[in-house]
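Propose amino acids for all 234 sites.
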C-alpha cells in the first residue's frame, strides 16, 4: 500500500524539479537543484527496488528526506544555468553522476540503519520503527549490490570526465580537487568491494568504508558547489 502511495509524491516532485532544472530554457544544476535531483532519484530507486526486495519499511524512513528535497528549490532558489544545447555525452555524464550519487546515498542510509539495528540488537532494545526492517543479512546483500552498481556509474562518470573533457567542459582535462576527491572516493569503494569479495568484509567494517567513500564523494561535487555558490557566491 505504501509503495503505491509514494508514486504521487514522486510524480509531483518530478514536476516541480523539472520546472526548476529547466527554468528559462537552460539547465540549472546548482547546488540546491542537484541535491533535490539526487534525493528524487534516491526515492525513485527505492520505489523500483521494492518490486524485487522487501524494503517497503525502508521506503517509509526515506520519505521525509525526499519531501525535504522537493521543497529545497523553492526555499533556496538559485540560478546557475549551463546551456540549453546539451550534447548526448554531457547528458549521459550528468545522468551517470546523479545516479551514482543517488545509489551511494541509499548505500549510506542502509549502512547507517544496519549499524543502528546491530547496536540495538546487542542491547536487546529494538524500537518499533526498526522492527519492520528486513533481516540484517538481506540488508547487507542489498548494500553491496547498491555499492557495486554505484561504483560502475562512478567509474563511467570519472572516465567520461577525462576522455570527453573537451565536449563536456569546453577545455582539456585538468587534474583538480573535484577529480582528486572523486578518485579517492572511487579507490575507497574499490577497496571495500575487493575486501568484501576476497576477505569477507561486512558489518562495522563495511559501514565505515561506505561512510568514508560517501564523504569523499560529497566533497568532490556537492562540496565544490557549496564553496562556489554559498561561500564565494559564484
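Proposal:
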Amino acid at each position: 500500500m505504501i509503495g503505491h502511495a509514494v508514486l504521487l509524491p514522486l510524480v509531483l516532485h518530478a514536476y516541480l524539479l523539472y520546472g526548476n532544472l529547466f527554468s528559462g530554457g537552460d539547465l540549472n544544476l546548482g547546488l540546491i537543484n542537484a541535491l533535490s535531483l539526487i534525493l528524487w532519484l534516491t526515492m525513485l530507486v527505492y520505489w523500483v527496488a521494492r518490486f524485487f526486495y522487501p524494503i517497503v519499511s525502508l521506503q517509509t524512513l526515506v520519505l521525509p528526506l525526499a519531501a525535504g528535497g522537493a521543497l529545497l528549490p523553492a526555499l533556496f532558489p538559485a540560478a546557475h544555468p549551463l546551456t540549453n544545447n546539451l550534447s548526448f555525452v554531457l547528458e549521459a555524464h550528468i545522468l551517470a553522476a546523479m545516479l551514482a550519487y543517488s545509489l551511494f546515498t541509499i548505500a549510506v542510509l542502509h549502512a547507517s540503519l544496519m549499524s543502528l539495528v546491530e547496536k540495538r540488537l546487542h542491547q536487546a532494545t529494538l524500537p518499533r520503527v526498526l522492527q519492520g526492517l528486513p533481516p540484517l543479512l538481506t540488508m547487507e546483500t542489498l548494500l553491496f549490490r547498491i555499492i557495486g552498481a554505484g561504483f560502475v556509474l562512478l567509474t563511467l562518470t570519472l572516465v567520461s570526465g577525462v576522455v570527453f573533457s573537451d565536449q563536456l567542459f569546453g577545455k582539456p582535462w585538468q587534474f583538480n580537487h573535484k577529480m582528486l576527491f572523486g578518485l579517492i572516493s572511487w579507490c575507497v569503494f574499490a577497496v571495500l568491494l575487493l575486501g568484501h569479495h576476497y576477505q569477507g568484509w561486512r558489518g562495522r567494517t563495511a559501514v565505515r568504508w561506505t561512510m568514508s567513500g560517501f564523504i569523499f564523494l560529497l566533497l568532490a561535487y556537492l562540496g565544490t558547489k557549496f564553496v562556489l555558490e554559498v561561500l564565494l557566491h559564484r
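The chain has a mean pLDDT of 77. The CA atoms of residues 201 and 219 lie 25 Å apart.
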